[in-house]
Structure formats: structure tokens, C-alpha cells
Amino acid sequence: MLHQSAENGFHPALKIAPRPAVSVVGLGYVGAVSTACLAGLGHRVIGVDVDAMKVQAIAEGRSPIHEKDLGRLLAKGVAAGLISATDDLAQAVVETDVTFVSVGTPTAADGGCDDRYIRAAARSIGAGLARKGVFHVVVMRCSIPPGTTLGVMVPEIEAASGLVAGRDFGVCFNPEFLREGVAVADFHAPPKTVIGVTDAATADLMSRLYADVDTNPIVTSIEVAEMVKYVDNVWHATKVTFANEVGRLCKPLDVDSHEVMEIFVRDTKLNLSPYYLKPGFAYGGSCLPKEVRAVTHIAGKLGVDLPLIASLDRSNATHIADAAQMVKATGARKVAVLGLAFKPGTDDLRESPILELMADLLECGIEITAHDPAITADTRIEAQLAYVAHASRGLGQLANGLRGMLADSAAEAVASADAVIVTHAHNEYRALAAATDKPAIDVARLWKSRSDQPANLCGIGW
Question: How many domains is the chain partitioned into structurally?
């Protein structure tokens, strides 16, 4: 939720001019590009860095890095009197309305994030704010673990300034999505603009700042914005690794890996789309588990190591085990399972992940009652069992007893149980989960907003 924190509903951020003056601390790739591009949009920009060579280069309109169009934009900005540079961050804060923090966040000795440069910048920003006396917005642009902006940077600024975030200064996390080599083009045509804030006035100011390049920014919480940056980059690393593993598999088979992937990426309905990219339950069904095993088997016979693809089955099994542990943690001795097929709207039980979970619970002596609108006493379970004789432990163990677990209705299943696990997002199941006070494990994301879900409900990944 965004807050309007000032008295009488008026926030001092609204006093900031339509083209706010900006200071950018950290003149590496992100900072230098931001300096040049913001000046190109008509903002007065002060670049700040402790590196005297970078400061001098920016002040003279020269690019401190090799990046297409950057030198031209910097020279144009300096000539227009819109770009200057300094090593005095506190003074730069005094002279501007918004400060972008783009300092380095290298890997620490323990593998985590080294935040010393963030802390140093925050202390100088705080010193500047203490001298300023008017509202200022601080925008974090670094890649940092969720919680760092509010848990590290803000306390340092508050301690150094004696001011309070949200009241005396605004805070924002605004991740960048700039690709080196085409960073200037990406700034002017961003894939998305994410603005993580705690107050509405700061969101409004940041939206106005980016209005020339994106009229539809995504406004969210600071923590979500922080995580988005990490997830984006890990996903890109996953794509690179996946494509490379495809190449390693194709080469000994004399298959053109580039032709394979060129066809693969033409599918924007499934392959390059939001489909499958929402946290939920484990994958299952007649295709995905079988094909992952098949590719892993082919690679093994060829002596090709595919760590990413080979780990998919282990990761999937871990997700099922985590769900089982959530159920066990309730202490329930009888559990209602709502949804048996591997996906709603089908009676396909082949490698349905919930069956693996149920087999685990049964081994622990937990009784199960189940319901699925598509699964009845007439469902040909034995026919499906033959298809997965060498794959689905869960279906193999449950085939003979599954019919005896079926309740006539979902309500009946819930009524006789101590806890509930919901695998399908049916309206009936959602209503039952909301109506009961029994522990309910949700692996289907029954409610879009976490704030709407009942107190007795626990999501597997949310």
C-alpha cells in the first residue's frame, strides 16, 4: 500500500518541479548512461564519483566507458549546461531534487552482497539532506538483496540526517534493465519501468520523471522491485545455460542446435511467454517428467554433462517434499486433498505430483480423503498406471486404494479432515478453504492478492 504521509494530505514532493534536477552517484555503466540520458530528456544532472578520472571525463563531456552513443550524449549535455560532475555527494544532494544511487555492489567474501559502498553513499546523502531542509527523493538503482533499501540504506540516511523517510525524504527502488552495448537505446525504449516506493507522492514524481520514455510504469513495493532485478538476471543466466546445454546435447547427435533454438523461440504462446512462469505446484503429467528423463538419459549415454536439465527432476521432487512437510507440520492425522489430476479440467493422473505427496503422507500413517470433479470411481486408473509403470511411484502405490479415498463431495472431504491441501483453483475449493478454520495448504494460488487470503491458509511459494 502506498501512503501519503504529510499532514492534511499534502506532500512536499509535489513541490518538486516537473523537470527535477538529478544527482547520480556512481559513474560506471549505469550511472554514466543515466546521467547522459536524463540530461537528454532535459534534466539538469550532477554526476558524482570518488574516482577523479570519471568525474573529469563526465565534466568534459567524455564517456568514461565504451558504450554506443554515450559520448555524444554526454558532450551534448555538457555543452547545453545540463551536465556537471563532482566528488562532493552531499553538496550534489543540496543542489538537486532527486538522487540516483548506482554504486557498486560486488560479491562479499561470504558470497553475499557487499554493501559498504551503499552505506558510504547513504551517509553522504544524509549529510546533504541535513543541510537542505526541503523534500528530496533517493532512488536506489543497484542490484541488492530484498530488504537492503529499507534495512540498510534508509537507516544510514536517517542516522546521518536526523530526518525520517516518507516524511522528510522519499525512497524508491528503481531497477535498471540496460544491456551493455545498447544501454542508451534501452534507456529510451525500456522493456519495463519498475518503480518500488512506499508513498504515493514519490511514485508520482518518479512516474513524471520517466514519462518521456514510458507512460505506463509498474508501481510496486520496494521489496518486490528489489527482487525483480535479481530474478530478471537469474532468468537470463538460466536462458544462456539452457541454450548452451541444448548445444552440448545436439553436437554429438549431429543436430544443428541453432536451427533447433530458432524454431524454439518462434513459439511465443508457450516457450517465450508468461505461461508456466508463475510459482505454484510441481510439474507433472504425461509429457514434462517423461521428456526431462529422456533427455537426461540421452545425455548420459552420450557422456554429455547437462547439470541444469539433469537438476530439474531433483528440484521438482524438492518442491513436492516441501509441500508434504507443510502438511505434516499441521499435525493433522487425516488430510483432505482437493484436486488429484496433474492439472484442472482433466482426469489425467499420470505423474500427478499430488500423488507423490499423498504416497509420502500415507507412509507416515496419515489418512487421506480426496476429491476431484473429474476423478470418480469409474476413472480407469489401471490403464494410466501401465503408462507410467517405471516412473510414477505415487500412482503405483495409490492405484489400488485411490478409489477408496474418494469422497462424494469436496465439502464431505473437508468435513472429515484435520487439514486441507488444495491443488486446483476451483471456485468451490476456494470457498471451502475460506470457510474452514482448519489449516489449508494452497499450492494453486487461490487468491491473487496475499492480503485477501484467509489467515488459516498457507501458500507454498507465497
Answer: 3
